[in-house]
Amino acid sequence: MATMQDVARLARVSVSTVSYALTGARPISQATRDKVLAAMAELDYQPNAMARGLASRRSRILGLLLPMDERGLGATETAFVTGAAAAASAAGYHLVLSPIGVGDLDQLRRLASQRMLDGALLMEVQLHDPRVDVLRELGVPLVLIGRTADTTGLSYVDIDFDQTVRAAVGHLVDLGHHRIVYVNHSADTLAEGYGPALRTRDAFTAAMAGHGLEPLMIPAEDSAAGGRTALATALRRVPDLTAILAMNESAVFGLLGELAARGRSVPDDVSVVSMVTSPQVAELATPALTAMNSPGSALGRIAIETLLRHVDVGDAQINQQLLPCALEVRGSSGPPRTEGTTTEAARRRAATRRRA
Amino acid sequence: MATMQDVARLARVSVSTVSYALTGARPISQATRDKVLAAMAELDYQPNAMARGLASRRSRILGLLLPMDERGLGATETAFVTGAAAAASAAGYHLVLSPIGVGDLDQLRRLASQRMLDGALLMEVQLHDPRVDVLRELGVPLVLIGRTADTTGLSYVDIDFDQTVRAAVGHLVDLGHHRIVYVNHSADTLAEGYGPALRTRDAFTAAMAGHGLEPLMIPAEDSAAGGRTALATALRRVPDLTAILAMNESAVFGLLGELAARGRSVPDDVSVVSMVTSPQVAELATPALTAMNSPGSALGRIAIETLLRHVDVGDAQINQQLLPCALEVRGSSGPPRTEGTTTEAARRRAATRRRA
DNA sequence: CTGAAAGCGCTAACAG
DNA sequence: CTGTTAGCGCTTTCAG
Question: What are the pLDDT digits (tens) for A19-50?
Fold first, then answer.
């Protein structure tokens, strides 16, 4: 493994010159630079990350703090990670994913106080996220993916839930739907103050009001069973509902299953629109889900760019940015049946159609 | 940020004593150790990772090389990652996930030759995986998750596909099924030599032969559409099939959707068993999928333990280990209808049942 | 524009 | 059992 000494010797310059050629921290004559670069190439030189980090007090490592629950990473999160990794790599930084949630504060504290991280991206941010306090206390720059309750002095990028919900409701209303039910995350999740659940709830209420419609939200556990229960509740409360907006990738599958079991066809009897969903997941359902596609990789890129600005200049400008999801119409949404269709009639028709 | 000097001064010992107290690389009297520990606690001391890494030529970082395709991380992979992270953390190492696939060789080369990684775990290993060559050349210890074609001199942990397939087929045969079709990954994936697809194919052939049954394998694209197409093909080739074994989490959803669309009920008309599937995903389907649960977190733990052995002693013993998946019966498998039931009759009965 | 040299904070001989 | 000290490989003043 060649060192900078070796390069300097071969190029017949001093080590500092090699260093400056590498970092560009001070001007170098073209002739010298060429000599140095040639020597580096010949020796297949790669700077030692630890030595560099020790001397410069910069690890060139950015952490992506990524709580991993048993559910895994959806395609949405993956797109985010991929976008972030590409942006970091382009800037000469390494992005390391650390499965650190709000429960692993000690681990985070260790990682940060060992000066391993030049900066951190927090995913799955909670309204009161203790990781923020830990990182601030240790002086590690950070950018949130999502938002805490109080975002003063914090940079973040997040989905524009308000606009996304408005677009989804607009799509359904344009199709002619009036009785639209919103299936959200669980009551516990709402009680915990999970931002996306709260923000979409409020956005749904506002969007429906804007169209002069009655908003009904039903919480659902993040599972197929939760979706089935939610559908039962929805049908009890609004027997003649014609559309469901869902913000719960797991529940939406149970919901579709239960709809089929009850003989309600999608989208003829009930339209379903899924929020913040990746194309890959939307295509898994039968029929494929009309969905609001999350801007995963753009979100990742912007987050890294913002973070690097903070890392490079300590007091960089705070950047708070929202990106909307784009509507992608697939098979699960369509115009409602004409008024007057009863539940019983619809069921009978569905059964008939199936036998045909 | 306190340094080791500060600790030494406060404890009235030399820096080397502090260092040895920290690493345990040489015996320390209890009294001295207590003094040092007290000083550390008082100063809230954390060793500087870069300095440590430079001096010891050990980064204490293990890389988990994890190609991220657009599909994301399933619950299976997540369990693996979580198990590995826990094991690494317990050993005082940091596990960093790097979204590096076989296409990002340059990035891997940089990471490794900058001496950032003490060792690496490779996921999604291909039969001829160039990452192995890069790491070996650079002297970075590695453990495979999966297997290359030639595994001499390589440690790996992998799923015991042979035993897993045998157990799945056994389950169906015990229920009374004879006409069992195997839905695998795509033809392209097979042609590329993707290990799990090839190994399960062969295991399926062997298992069926063991029961005196005819094996039929059908490749399917990794998507819902692929599953629908595969079902159509399967029914064309074996109109009276009673069971499907699937090794394709995406296709299995399309397959179930198509089965429902054709009025074949699961499991009454057709039993479905999904291989190497996590409980979370299995529960998403309606009915919930009988599945072979992958040993994700155990796999991760064992992989890390093996890797650390290689890191600690350069010429550690090669460890090649296979873990089986465990059968978990849910709603998608059951006894077949009695012989003689025609497709038409089954469809009619299904429709009737649904209206009841 | 270039060189010399003083560290960065820690580990690991080498001495006792 | 403990202390002294020479690096690890690089960055960054300070001089020229």
Answer: 999 888 888 888 899 989 999 999 999 999 99
pLDDT given at position B70: 64
How many Cβ atoms from other residues are within 10 Å of residue B103's Cβ? 10
User: What is the helix (H) or strand (E) element at residue B84, kind and residue range?
Assistant: helix B75-90
CA distance B12 to B5: 10
| Cβ–Cβ < 8 Å for B174, B335 | no
pLDDT, tens digit (0-9, with 9 covering 90-100), for A102-126? 778 888 998 899 999 999 999 988 8
**Percentage of residues in chain A with pLDDT exceeding 90?**
64
Range with the poorest average pLDDT among A148-152, B37-41, B103-107? B103-107
Q: Quick check: B1 CB within 7 A of strand C?
A: yes
Query: 3-class SS at A352?
Result: helix
| Predicted confidence (pLDDT) at residue B315 exceeds the cutoff of 90 | no
Lookup: tokens for B300: 């991760």
The confidence score (pLDDT) of residue A292 equals: 95
Contact assignment for A49 to B115 by CB distance below 8 Å: yes
Structure tokens, A264 = 């309600």
The CATH classification of domain A161-294+328-337, taken from the options 3.40.50.2300, 3.40.50.720, 1.10.1040.10, 3.40.50.12780: 3.40.50.2300
* pTM given for the model: 0.84
Given a cut of 90, is residue A192 above it in pLDDT? no
Task: Tell me which residue in A50, A95, A351 faces B355 most closely, judged by beta carbons.
Answer: A351
Distance CA B327, CA B174 (A): 13
For A7, the 3-state DSSP assignment is helix
Task: Give the nearest partner residue to B49 out of A77, A96, A115, using CB atoms.
Answer: A115
Residue numbers in B near A113 (CB within 8 A): 1, 44, 46
Task: List bases in chain D with any atom under 7 Å of a protein Cβ.
Answer: 1-5, 7-13
The residue extents of the domains of chain A are: 1-57, 161-294+328-337
Taking CB atoms and an 8 Å cutoff, what residues of chain A touch B43? none
Q: How many of the other CB atoms lie within 10 Å of CB of B341?
A: 15
Tell me if A285 and B79 make a contact (CB, 8 A cut-off): no
Model pLDDT for residues B133-169, shown as the tens digit of each residue: 999 999 999 999 999 999 999 999 999 999 999 999 9
Q: Is the CB of B20 under 7 A from strand D?
A: yes
Structure tokens at B334: 């059951």
Contact A261 B286 (CB under 8 A): yes
Choose the closest CB to B97 out of A54, A96, A224: A96
Number of H helices, E strands in chain A: 15, 12
Comparing C-alpha atoms, which of A337, A179, A214 is closest to residue A264? A337
| A17 secondary structure, DSSP code | H
User: What's the pLDDT tens digit per position in B74-133?
Assistant: 778 888 888 998 899 889 899 888 888 777 888 899 889 999 999 999 998 888 889 999
What's the pLDDT tens digit per position in B166-189? 999 999 999 999 999 999 999 998
Tokens, residue A123: 């995913």
Q: How far apart are CA A109 and CA B174, in angstroms?
A: 53
Average model confidence (pLDDT) across chain B: 88
For residue A70, the model assigns a pLDDT of: 64
The topology (CATH level 3) of A1-57 is 434 Repressor (Amino-terminal Domain) (1.10.260)
Q: Rounded mean pLDDT of chain A?
A: 88
The burial class, CB within 10 Å (0-12 / 13-18 / 19+), for A69 is middle
- Measuring CA to CA, how many Å separate B195 from each of A13, B14, B145, B223, B275? 51, 55, 11, 19, 15
Q: Do A72 and B73 touch (CB under 8 A)?
A: yes
Would you call B249 helix, strand, or coil by DSSP? Answer: helix
Cβ atoms of residues A118 and A308 within 8 Å: no
Domains B1-57 and B161-294+328-337 share a fold: no
Backbone angles phi, psi at A302, to 5 degrees: -65, -40
